[in-house]
Specification:
- Helices cover 29% and strands 34% of the residues.
- By secondary structure, it is an alpha+beta fold.
- The strands form three sheets. Strands 5, 6, 7, 8, 9, 10, 13, 14, 15 and 16 form a ten-stranded antiparallel β-sheet that branches. Strands 2-1-3-4 form a four-stranded parallel β-sheet, with helices on both faces. Strands 11-12 form a two-stranded antiparallel sheet.
- Strand 1, helix 1 and strand 2 form a beta-alpha-beta unit.
- Helix 1 runs parallel beside helix 5.
- The longest helix has 15 residues.
C-alpha cells in the first residue's frame, strides 16, 4: 500500500515527536511518503500529486482546515472531469477541534488514532460518506453564513498573530460577535426545494454531519438527524434576542438535543439550499473564513468519499 502522510506542522496539537512516531507506525505497514505543508494551499497540491501518482491512501495529520484543503485537492467537484484514480482518506487529528475526525468516530489522541487507523487498515474497514458543496468548494461537516463566519474571521486573524484557537477563545469571540451583530437587521433568505422561502434570517448553519462542532469535549448539536449518509442539515435563527438565543443554545448542548423554537428554522435532511443576502455576508467552511458573498448554493453529494473510519 502506497501512502502519503500530509503533516501540518503549524496545527494546534502537532509536534515533531508525534509526527515521527506516526511515521514510524505507518512505515511498518505501508510504503510511506511524508510531506509537511509549507503554506496555505500546499496540502491541496500534495493531495493532487498523490492522486496523480495513484497512491492508495492519503493520511492527514492536522486540523479540519488541512483535511478540507486535502479533499479539495484530489476530489473533483460535481461537473468536473473525473479522476482515473482516487485514494482513500485517513485522518490523524492534529488541530484544536478536529470536528470531522471526531464525527467519524476517530480517536482524538493522535497516537491512539494512529493505532486505530492501522487496525482499520488491517480489517479493510472503509466508510463511504457524502460531502457538501458550497458553490465551488467541498465541505466535510459544516458551513455557515453570518455570525458563525464572523467568529471564524476573527479567530483566523488571531491565529495569524500566533494566538491558539482554544475553546475559551472561541466562546469569548462568539459572545463578542453576537453583541456586535445584534444591532443589524436580518438580511438572509433561504430557498430550499419543497419549502416556502425562509426570510428574515440573521445567520444560518448548513451541516453535513452531527455534531456541528465541539465546545471542548461537549458536542454542540444543531441538526441531530443529519448524518454523512443523509442530505444536509439547515439551522437558521430569525432572532438576535438574548433570551431566545440562550434557550436555543441550551438545547444545542443537551445530550438528547432536538433544537426547536418559533424563532428557529431547522431541517435535518435536504438536498440543497440557496442562501441570499441583501449585502455581502461572511461565509465559513469547515471552520475557515472564506470571504463575503451575496449568494451561496449548498448541495449534498452522497457516497462520494472513501474514508478509513469505524462504521456508523
Amino acid at each position: 500500500m502506497r501512502t502519503l502522510l500530509i503533516v501540518n506542522p503549524n496545527a494546534t496539537s502537532t509536534t515533531r515527536s508525534t509526527r515521527d512516531l506516526l511515521a514510524h507506525a505507518l512505515e511498518s505497514r505501508t510504503e510511506l511518503t511524508v510531506r509537511q505543508t509549507e503554506r496555505r494551499g500546499h496540502a491541496a497540491e500534495l493531495a493532487a500529486w498523490a492522486a496523480d501518482s495513484r497512491m492508495d491512501l492519503i493520511v492527514v495529520h492536522g486540523g479540519d482546515g488541512t483535511v478540507n484543503e486535502t479533499i479539495n485537492g484530489f476530489l473533483p467537484l460535481p461537473g468536473q472531469p473525473r479522476r482515473e484514480w482516487l485514494p482513500r482518506l485517513g485522518i490523524i487529528p492534529g488541530g484544536s477541534a478536529n470536528v470531522f475526525a471526531r464525527s467519524l468516530g476517530i480517536e482524538p489522541d493522535p497516537v491512539t488514532a494512529a493505532n486505530q487507523l492501522i487496525d482499520l487498515l488491517a480489517d479493510s474497514a472503509d466508510r463511504r460518506i457524502g460531502l457538501g458543496v458550497a458553490d465551488d468548494r467541498w465541505f466535510c461537516f459544516s458551513a455557515g453564513v453570518g455570525l458563525d463566519a464572523d467568529v471564524c474571521e476573527v479567530i483566523d486573524a488571531k491565529r495569524a498573530k500566533g494566538k491558539s484557537a482554544t475553546p475559551a477563545r472561541y466562546l469569548r469571540t462568539t459572545v463578542q460577535q453576537f453583541f456586535r451583530a445584534k444591532r443589524r437587521a436580518p438580511q438572509v433568505t433561504l430557498d430550499i426545494p419543497g419549502h416556502e422561502p425562509v426570510t428574515n434570517v440573521h445567520y444560518a448553519f448548513v451541516t453535513n454531519a452531527s455534531p456541528w462542532t465541539y465546545l471542548d469535549n461537549t458536542p454542540v448539536i444543531t441538526n441531530p438527524g443529519t448524518t454523512f449518509e443523509s442530505g444536509l442539515g439547515v439551522f437558521a435563527m430569525r432572532t438576535m434576542g438574548v433570551l431566545p438565543t440562550l434557550m436555543v443554545a441550551r438545547q444545542l448542548l443537551s445530550a438528547d438535543a432536538e433544537p426547536k423554537g418559533h424563532t428557529l428554522f431547522r431541517e435535518d435532511d435536504v438536498p440543497g439550499v440557496t442562501v441570499t443576502a441583501e449585502e455581502p455576508i461572511g461565509l465559513q467552511i469547515d471552520g475557515d473564513f472564506i470571504g463575503r458573498r451575496n449568494m451561496v448554493n449548498f448541495t449534498a453529494v452522497p457516497d462520494i468519499l472513501d474514508v478509513v473510519a469505524p462504521k456508523p
